[in-house]
Amino acid sequence: MIIAITGTPGTGKSTVSSILAESYHVIHLNEIVKVMGFYSGIDEKRGSLEVEMDELEAYLREALRDHDEIIVEGHLAHLLDAGYDIVIVLRCRPSILRDRLRSKGFNEDKVRENLEAEALDVILIEALEGGFDAVYEIDTTERTANEVAACIKEIVEGNVEEYLPGRVSWGDELEKIVDELLREGV
């Protein structure tokens, strides 16, 4: 089984995947990009790597041949055609996500961009439009990493009702985010 764990930065992908590494082989896409040099430069505004997606996808397809039970973790996972059996999008309430991203040292432009993406369901929509057979979402806001790992195990076991797409919504925070952006002159 090949499982993709994706989501906006700060939703808990790496932490949860580290817990699941006890049962699965885990590929951390961000590490692969850096170690293998699958990037063409650095986006000056965002301070993020400009990833060479074709190179990353080719590497991933090759790596997937060696393992039966595998997790591919990263905010780009859902954009790669890697034959996933399940795609899981981790979600987090924007007001909490803001604090997580700031504590990780993200600059304010990057914080704002990621909050907008989370509030507007960008990664979930991209995953749903990616043609995958099984896409689920988990709200990590008030769950520990161990609890999220347990949710993923439930999904793998077929207990999916609670995690169907559309169950997580940040509509109540969207107006606050827009107001904040307008005050900041964005």
TrEMBL record:
<feature type="binding site">
    <location>
        <position position="13"/>
    </location>
    <ligand>
        <name>ATP</name>
    </ligand>
</feature>
<feature type="binding site">
    <location>
        <position position="12"/>
    </location>
    <ligand>
        <name>ATP</name>
    </ligand>
</feature>
<comment type="function">
    <text>Broad-specificity nucleoside monophosphate (NMP) kinase that catalyzes the reversible transfer of the terminal phosphate group between nucleoside triphosphates and monophosphates. Has also ATPase activity. Involved in the late maturation steps of the 30S ribosomal particles, specifically 16S rRNA maturation. While NMP activity is not required for ribosome maturation, ATPase activity is. Associates transiently with small ribosomal subunit protein uS11. ATP hydrolysis breaks the interaction with uS11.</text>
</comment>
<keyword id="KW-0418">Kinase</keyword>
<dbReference type="Pfam" id="PF13238">
    <property type="entry name" value="AAA_18"/>
</dbReference>
<dbReference type="GO" id="GO:0042274">
    <property type="term" value="P:ribosomal small subunit biogenesis"/>
</dbReference>
<comment type="subunit">
    <text>Interacts with uS11. Not a structural component of 40S pre-ribosomes, but transiently interacts with them by binding to uS11.</text>
</comment>
<dbReference type="InterPro" id="IPR020618">
    <property type="entry name" value="Adenyl_kinase_AK6"/>
</dbReference>
<dbReference type="GO" id="GO:0016887">
    <property type="term" value="F:ATP hydrolysis activity"/>
</dbReference>
<comment type="similarity">
    <text>Belongs to the adenylate kinase family. AK6 subfamily.</text>
</comment>
<dbReference type="InterPro" id="IPR027417">
    <property type="entry name" value="P-loop_NTPase"/>
</dbReference>
<dbReference type="GO" id="GO:0005524">
    <property type="term" value="F:ATP binding"/>
</dbReference>
<feature type="binding site">
    <location>
        <position position="14"/>
    </location>
    <ligand>
        <name>ATP</name>
    </ligand>
</feature>
<dbReference type="GO" id="GO:0006364">
    <property type="term" value="P:rRNA processing"/>
</dbReference>
<protein>
    <recommendedName>
        <fullName>Putative adenylate kinase</fullName>
        <ecNumber>2.7.4.3</ecNumber>
    </recommendedName>
</protein>
<keyword id="KW-0547">Nucleotide-binding</keyword>
<dbReference type="GO" id="GO:0004017">
    <property type="term" value="F:AMP kinase activity"/>
</dbReference>
<feature type="binding site">
    <location>
        <position position="10"/>
    </location>
    <ligand>
        <name>ATP</name>
    </ligand>
</feature>
<feature type="binding site">
    <location>
        <position position="15"/>
    </location>
    <ligand>
        <name>ATP</name>
    </ligand>
</feature>
<keyword id="KW-0698">rRNA processing</keyword>
<feature type="region of interest" description="LID">
    <location>
        <begin position="103"/>
        <end position="113"/>
    </location>
</feature>
<keyword id="KW-0067">ATP-binding</keyword>
<keyword id="KW-0808">Transferase</keyword>
<keyword id="KW-0690">Ribosome biogenesis</keyword>
